[in-house]
Amino acid sequence: MGLSPADRYILDRRIHALVNSVLVEEHRRQPLGPHSPQLTEVLHFLRRSPDPDLPRYVVLRTRSPTGWVIGACAAGRGSRPRPIDSPRYLSRAEAEHAVFLRRLSDYGIEVAPDLVQRAGVEVGGGIEPAAPGIVGYVDTLSVAPGEALSLHVSTDAKRWSAQFGPPPVRRATTRRASTA
C-alpha cells in the first residue's frame, strides 16, 4: 500500500529538508520535549505513521528497575505489543530517541552513524508494558467547535476517562513590595 501521494510529497519536500544533525541532536538531548517547531513537525509526521506497511513502534519497560526496549504494535486491535530485537536502554528517554532514529530510517532518512551509535545501552530483565499503563494520541492537534476528533488509546486498565477542552488559563498575580 505505502504512502499516499500527499504524504509522499510531505516526506520528500518537507520532512527530508528539516532533518539534519542539529535536529537529531536536539531530539537526543530532549526526546520528551520541549521541542523546536521543526522537530515538532517531524515528530508529528513520524508518529502519525502514515505508511501502513511500516511498524508502529512503542517503548516497553522491562522488569528491571531501569530497563527499556522497543516494541512493535501487532496488527490487530487489542493485541499486546511485542518486543523487537533491539538493545535495552537505561532510560525511557534513550528508548524514545532510538524509536525516533528507527522511524527516520524506515522513511529512508539517513542519519550520521556517530549520532546512531549514541543511542542504546544493554541492561537485563524481562519485559512488561511501559508505565503509566495508558498511551493515547489524537488524530489532529486542533479542531473547530463541532468538528470531529478521533482519540486512539491503548491501555490494560478496565476503566479510563479523558477530558477535552482549551488549556486552563493561568491568572497573573502581582505582589507589592512591602515598605518598612
Shape estimate: globular
In DSSP terms (H or I, runs of 4 or more residues), the helix count works out at 5
Order of helices and strands: HHHEEEHHEEE
Low-confidence stretches: 117-132
Widest sheet: strand ordering: 3-2-1-4
Structural class: alpha+beta
Distance between the termini: 75 Å
Entry keywords:
alpha+beta; two-stranded antiparallel ribbon; 180 residues; single chain; globular; four-stranded antiparallel β-sheet
Could you write a compact summary of the structure shown?
By secondary structure, the chain is an alpha+beta fold.
Structural summary, described in words:
31% of the residues lie in helices and 14% in strands. The N and C termini lie far apart (75 Å). The protein has one domain (5-155). Residues 117-132 have low confidence and may be disordered. It has a four-stranded antiparallel beta sheet. It has 180 residues and is of the alpha+beta class. Strand 1 (57-62) and strand 2 form a beta hairpin.
